[in-house]
Amino acid sequence: MKTITQRKTAERSIARLNFRLPAKIKKRVEDAAVLSGVTVSDFAVAALVSSADAVLRQQEERKLSDRDRDLFLNLLETPPKPNKALKKAAQKYKKVSG
Q1: What angle (nearest 5°) sits at the alpha carbon of residue 82, between those of residues 77 and 86?
Q2: How many CB atoms lie within 10 A of CB 46?
């Protein structure tokens, strides 16, 4: 049996997400959960997490065209000479950082 402290800790680690959906969609989710052998809540959470992960992963990844990739690699291999603004920013950084 859990102690009061354990129950309170468990309660704090759980967040609630409430939303309404059309009855047809709810039925589809329920059917899919049954076929997957999990509860509707577990099925919904897994689907939401999977979708959220995909969106976040897509945001983190940057896809470059061949042209952009070549330009980027070229700049790494042969960087341009520092211009006046970059030199000024470097001096300002050195003063501020010590």
Answers
A1: 125
A2: 13
48 lies in some domain: yes
Residue 51 lies in a domain: yes
- Residue numbers of the domain that contains 43: 23-80
Structural domains in the chain (count): 1
48: nearest Cα among 22, 34, 29: 29
d(CA 75, CA 72): 5
Q: How many whole angstroms separate alpha carbon 77 and alpha carbon 27?
A: 57
- Per residue in 3-25, pLDDT (tens digit) is 666 666 666 678 889 999 999 99
> Model-level pTM greater than 0.85?
no
Residue type, 37: G
* Structural contact between residues 42 and 33, judged by C-beta atoms closer than 8 angstroms: yes
